Amino acid sequence: MKDYLDTLPKNLIAGFQKYGETKTAMRQKDRGIWRSYTWKRSYIEVRQLCLGLIELGLMHGDKVCIIGDNDPQYFWAQLAVQSAGGVAVGIFTDSTPPEIQYIVRHSDAVFVFAKDQEQCDKLLEIQEEVPNVKQVIYWDEKGLWNYEEPWLMSYQQVQALGQSLDERQPDLFDETINLGHGDDQAIFCYTSGTTGLPKGAMINHNNLIAGCDQTLQVDPRLDNDEYLSFLPPAWITENVLGLTVHLRTGMVVSFPEAPDTVQQNIREITPQAMLFSARLWENMMAMVQVKITETTWLNRMLYKTFMPIGYQVAAQRYEHRKPVGWLWRLLYGLGELVLFHPLRDKFGLTHVKSAYSSGAALNPDVIRFFRAIGVNIKQLYGSTEAQVHTLHVGDDVKFETVGVPAPGQEIMIADNSEILISGATVFQGYYKNPEDTEKALEVDQQGKRWFHTGDAGYIDKDGHLIYLDRVKEMITLSTGEKYSPQYIEGQLKFSPYVQDVMTLGGEDKPFVTALINIDFENVGRWAEKKAIPYTTFVDLSQRREVYDLIRQDVQRVNQTLPSPARVHKFVLLHKAFDADEGELTRTRKLRRSLLYERYEDMIRTMYEGGDSVQVRASVKYRDGREGTVETAVQVATLEMEESE
Amino acid sequence: MTDDSVQLSVQDITLIFGGLHALTDISFEVKQGEILSIIGPNGAGKTSLLNCLNNFYHPDRGRILFNGHNLTRMPPYKIAKLGIARTFQHTALYTGLSTLDNLMAARHIHMRSGLLQCLLYWGPAHQEDIANRKVVEEVIDFLEIEHIRKSIVGTLPHGLRKRVELGRALAMEPQMLLLDEPMTGMNQEEKEDMARFILDIHERQGTTVLLIEHDMGLVMDIADRIVVLDFGSKIAEGTPEEIHQNEAVINAYLGKTGI
């Protein structure tokens, strides 16, 4: 239907023809007022800028770097470059001059858009090293009034050049756009690369449009939906879920007034779609919990009364998948009025239809919290190279998974547990880097292109993908099977009763075991509720009931794992890991080799099949005295049914 | 007046508190559009001098001319109307009001509407409010304080309050800015931001700046000329390079080893 709209600029023109001056395309808060730009305005900005760049010598296939915050001008610059058949290369605004220099040189950029004085200064610093850059174009003139570098040029100057070219050759713009093709490269995304130099992933127009349409299939957007653009525009996500969705559906894109005002602006715009990192969702929940202790008694009372109802109804609806009774619905409705809606309003979540979390695994407590107040957060897993791999669709949300493959995406798990993706979104390779391209892209016999993510995972019985860790972080057992310490430990620590976990495995061990630290406070409270008597940490940790409690958590995590990667045995340690004794770093990371030595007896007992081990551990008290504790630590063995 | 470009002329100012000579025969001139910095050890009389310019203190002798107007007997609000705005060493904002309201309050001197018109908030009064708000929004944009537009000033950290205070002075659209230690208590990054703002104001609007500051490195970087006070007397005046090499200054202020 829209097949002929195979590039982003062609979609812009279609939008302009459809909406013209009648509809807002973009919006930005300026001097305290939200200012709207119609589709016509967007179109004219892009047209003039594009022709200006052509006048300055931009050729089909040339690269242009853009470094700046989320502004309409950023997207217009990108579309202008693409209209002229060029490739837009985004650079993160916090990049240092040497980083900018690397990307500008490596991408062979002939122009650079740099938002303001800050970015222009960085470029002036490296001017000598980037001789191919003909012109640096800025769009925020603040502080640049007295710069007399001919190398710098304002947005308006370029547009004025474009306007005069337009008068001389009025058909040029349309002709240039019609030369564009879906196979043309649209953007290069330089991945930060934890090791080595950044790699420029080449993404063509087909990739972007496919990625957008796939997501829209499961999560449709309307042309009066609102979206706030605050993810870095140099990032693939903003390009697909922001710009491309905007061009394909007409969704209104608003831009924050300043990077610091994002939270306020979200509240004003109340977008329908939002993507936050897991960390940000966690912070938002923590913020509510802190603020509620400081508010008036009335608010506190409402929170205490209605949150449990919210939790109850959300659990019924999403976890037990049962209809909610009328009484609960009535109570929830009341809560909606006095608590849930006002809370959502604080975060600008009142109109949100799709709330996504990406990055690390999200703590189920956070998901439950937001579900209780009426926001069903879904996980999304993707990469620069293949965009959205998997996501949760509808109400089919499982805490421990990252969802099901997006429509059109095919997922395969390689022998070394690596996740491979094939689909129309798979990128075109790394620019000027055939070596890494060969490692990351594989073409099979049917001609399908597979992207090697470098991530390990597997697909569970419901077709959901479970993400474990990077492949190189996986540990191999003596049986040749692999397991992910990070996944098991992370998932176990989501339990309120588990303070710390160290998993054990390796090439000399046939199965996985774990040393677990109970959370003394929470387990203690649980024991009091259950009327289980205990005296000290040592005593509590060795109670049969506590073992049963933790066993449930271990089983819960085991169920999500294939049999060889499960925890076979665990012990509950008689004492907590202690930074004062050097068992943890000051940032509470495990000192694995030291722990391994210190609990050698226990570990040996688990692998030799003993039931318990007598321990005498030296303990350093905080006042400097040393003492010993002596007790028998039990070994818990889990029954292993065959893997489904 | 000898020179047209002289905007402010301080002539033989003497200020006496009981037996203490806070200022003794201070004379200097500030030219239109320059950044002049007044430095000196603690208690040298820098803030007293600034207070004389505003007429918070009344000098016992001498006179101060601003664009030909004699300020010595003029009440502070009239001095403000002439186009002199200042910030204070210890911020003096309305802590219970928002940033926006603090800045709007500074527009008071430019308001013409009467009480009745303002009450009705109609016609010219409404127009005037919009025009003033526009100026204030320009200042907010300029100083990059959009995110605290609606925040109550009393809840803001020190560095931001200093910026709001500068904003309030700017909202008056002054010809001359008196800045009394605008960077005290700031970290390096905040100081650099503040210095950039001062330079930008100066570049953009050609505003004359009279700056009292302790951070010598900063003063040396941004001032066109420097006046040095010690024990209430002017001991030197000149460009940063000249001051840097001036024996009297090195002995009095910078220490024998210099900076």
SSE inventory with pairings:
The complex is a heterodimer of chains A (644) and B (259).
Chain A (H helix, E strand, L loop, with lengths): L7 H12 L4 E7 L2 E6 H17 L7 E5 L4 H12 L3 E5 L5 H10 L2 E6 L2 H9 L9 E4 L13 E3 H14 L3 H8 L5 E7 L7 E6 H14 L7 E3 L7 H14 L2 E4 L6 H8 L3 E5 H17 L2 H23 L6 H21 L7 E5 L5 H9 L4 E7 L3 E5 L12 E2 L4 E4 L4 E5 L11 H7 E3 L5 E11 L5 E6 L4 E2 L5 E2 L1 H9 L4 E7 L7 E7 L1 H10 L7 H5 L2 H16 L7 E6 L19 H7 L1 H9 L3 E9 L5 E9 L1 E2 L7
Helix pairs in contact in A: 1-2, 1-3, 2-3, 2-6, 8-9, 12-13, 12-14
Chain B lengths: L5 E12 L2 E12 L3 E5 L6 H9 L6 E6 L2 E2 L5 H7 L1 E4 L11 H8 L8 H6 L3 H19 L15 H14 L4 E5 L7 H18 L2 E5 L3 H7 L2 E6 L2 E6 L1 H6 L1 H8 L5
Number of helices of chain A: 21
Strand order of the largest sheet of chain A: 7-6-5-3-4-8-9
Helix content of chain B: 25-40%
Question: Main beta sheet of chain B, described?
Answer: 6 strands, mixed
Query: Which term fits the overall shape of chain A?
Result: globular
Shape label of chain B: globular
Number of helices of chain B: 10
Strand content of chain B: 15-25%
